[in-house]
């Protein structure tokens, strides 16, 4: 709440939220803050509130065209009306400036994956994929028609889509051309008896390492669409080293201070867990198990040191840590307080080292010819997050950069960068 208040009082004029963020808690917090700042903010018509619908949060939410089956995602008009009503209530308002269809591609993701995994016999693959995507295009037109009526009712000012599939490579089976979406919107406006579509906004990821959206933004802006970019500081990468079904990895474009104390903690851990079998003719089974467990832990620490440069993100390390923790619980029935505290400190310091190495790798990539938007010249003392946000703000065609901020110091940084870039 404090970060949002500071943002609004500092001049931020666009709020980007969703019915799915925090199970609706994001909208509730925004409604509370806006109501509390009613007399301190500039005119309401200078503030744009954008929300989204598409992901089902309640166990009772079902697709009206598929009665009784609970879904994870739905863009049916009835569901849209239901979610909009809830959003307006949470936001404590009777009007929403922009309502976006969130991740519409999720509707056909499983169908497309099925076609790719098991292509229909005797059918051209391109035709099979087109047929797999067809239900989405039909549903979008129906939803856009309903959204046009909702604009006419005064509940929303306009609508659009929030969809990273818009900026996928054209060869990607999940790619959705923005021109096709706009054509559907224009067709829906005509069906609703309107001369001009209320479809006005595209929202998708653009950042200095995923820059293909810049061209899309520039082209869409020429056709009168407003483009909101998101994830300016977060890179999404496929997890090529794990299960293909695993979620993608996230790499944060943030700098990490040079970690201190890691080598000392590492040496302490290696020494602390150095155990030998007691000098006796018949060591107990417990003694042998403890020695073997400590040797395993020493080998683990040494292996982690070798793996340090290989982690691509902190999230990748955190996934690894889950498995390590489970193995530790199997090796040691119980750890004394000193041992447990030392291990906790070691893994914390190791995480700091991973952050430091990942930031160094990212900086090296951005300054190399391999970077699609580069190579860039970055001063050594410039934090990566500052550079990435400055880059996003300078891209033509992008009207708004959506930046998630949860702390007041993040707001101070962002406002300073915006001021310097303007």
Q: What do you see in this structure?
A:
The structure is a single chain. With 422 residues, the chain is α/β, with parallel strands linked by helices. It folds into two domains: 1-252 and 383-421, TIM Barrel (Alpha-Beta Barrel); 262-367. The chain has 13 helices and nine strands. It has helices at 2-9, 25-36, 77-91, 109-117, 125-153, 178-191, 213-222, 262-272, 285-307, 314-331, 337-366, 384-393, 408-421, and strands spanning 14-16, 48-53, 96-102, 156-162, 199-205, 226-230, 234-237, 249-252, 400-401. A seven-stranded parallel β-sheet has the order 1-2-3-4-5-6-9, with helices on one face. A two-stranded antiparallel sheet has the order 7-8. α2 (25-36) packs across α3 (77-91) and α10 (314-331) packs antiparallel against α11. The longest helix is centred in the last third of the chain and has 30 residues, at 337-366. The radius of gyration is 26 Å and the shape is globular. Residues 59-71 have low confidence and may be disordered. InterPro entries: AKR2_Oxidoreductase, NAD(P)_OxRdtase_dom_sf, NADP_OxRdtase_dom. Pfam families: Aldo_ket_red. It comes from Octactis speculum. Residues 3-162 form the NADP-dependent oxidoreductase domain. This is NADP-dependent oxidoreductase domain-containing protein.
Largest sheet: 7 strands, parallel
Average pLDDT over all residues: 88
How many separate structural domains?
Answer: 2
Order of helices and strands: HEHEHEHHEHEHEEEHHHHHEH
Q: Tell me the CATH superfamily of the largest domain.
A: NADP-dependent oxidoreductase domain
Estimated radius of gyration: 26 Å
The span between the termini is 26 Å
Q: Per the principal axes of the C-alpha atoms, what is the gross shape? A: globular
Count the E strands: 9
Q: Which CATH architecture of the largest domain?
A: Alpha-Beta Barrel
CATH class of the largest domain: Alpha Beta
CATH topology of the largest domain, which one?
TIM Barrel
Specify the helix fraction band. Answer: 40-55%
Percent of residues in β-strands: 5-15%
- Helices, by number, come to 13
Task: Write out the strand line-up for the largest beta sheet, numbering strands in chain order.
Answer: 1-2-3-4-5-6-9
SSE-based structural type:
alpha/beta
Uncertain spans: 59-71
Pfam family, one: Aldo_ket_red
InterPro entries: AKR2_Oxidoreductase (IPR053135), NAD(P)_OxRdtase_dom_sf (IPR036812), NADP_OxRdtase_dom (IPR023210)
Organism: Octactis speculum
Protein name: NADP-dependent oxidoreductase domain-containing protein
């Amino acid at each position: 709440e404090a970060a949002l208040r500071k943002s609004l009082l500092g001049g931020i004029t666009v709020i980007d939220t969703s019915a799915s963020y925090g199970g609706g808690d994001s909208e509730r917090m925004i409604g509370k803050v806006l109501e509390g700042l009613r007399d301190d903010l500039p005119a309401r018509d200078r503030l744009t509130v954008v929300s989204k619908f598409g992901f089902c949060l309640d166990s009772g939410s079902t697709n009206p065209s598929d009665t009784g089956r609970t879904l994870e995602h739905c863009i049916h008009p009835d569901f849209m009306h239901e979610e909009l009503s809830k959003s307006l209530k949470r936001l404590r308002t009777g009007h929403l400036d922009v309502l976006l269809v969130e991740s519409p591609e999720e509707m056909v993701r499983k169908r497309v994956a099925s076609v790719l995994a098991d292509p229909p016999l005797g059918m051209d693959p391109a035709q099979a994929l087109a047929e797999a995507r067809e239900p989405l295009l039909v549903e979008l037109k129906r939803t856009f028609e309903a959204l046009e009526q909702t604009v006419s009712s005064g509940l929303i000012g306009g609508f659009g889509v929030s969809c990273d599939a818009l900026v996928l490579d054209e060869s990607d089976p999940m790619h959705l051309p923005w021109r096709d979406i706009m054509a559907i919107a224009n067709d829906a406006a005509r069906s609703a008896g309107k001369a001009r579509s209320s479809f006005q906004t595209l929202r998708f990821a653009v950042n200095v390492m995923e820059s293909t959206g810049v061209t899309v933004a520039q082209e869409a802006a020429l056709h009168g669409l407003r483009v909101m970019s998101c994830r300016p500081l977060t890179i999404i990468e496929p997890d090529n080293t794990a299960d293909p079904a695993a979620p993608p990895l996230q790499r944060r474009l943030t700098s990490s201070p040079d970690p201190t104390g890691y080598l000392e903690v590492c040496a302490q851990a290696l020494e602390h867990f150095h155990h030998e079998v007691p000098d006796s003719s018949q060591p107990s089974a417990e003694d042998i198990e403890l020695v073997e467990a400590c040797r395993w832990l020493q080998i683990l620490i040494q292996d982690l040191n070798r793996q340090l440069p290989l982690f691509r993100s902190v999230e990748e390390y955190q996934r690894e840590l889950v498995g390590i923790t489970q193995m530790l619980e199997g090796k040691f029935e119980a750890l004394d307080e000193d041992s447990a505290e030392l291990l906790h400190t070691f893994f914390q310091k190791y995480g700091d080292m991973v952050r430091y190495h990942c930031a160094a790798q990212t900086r090296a990539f951005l300054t190399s010819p391999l970077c699609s938007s580069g190579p860039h010249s970055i001063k050594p003392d410039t934090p990566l997050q500052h550079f990435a946000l400055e880059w996003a703000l300078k891209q033509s065609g992008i009207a708004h950069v959506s930046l998630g901020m949860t702390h007041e110091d993040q707001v101070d940084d962002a406002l300073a960068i915006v001021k310097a870039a303007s």
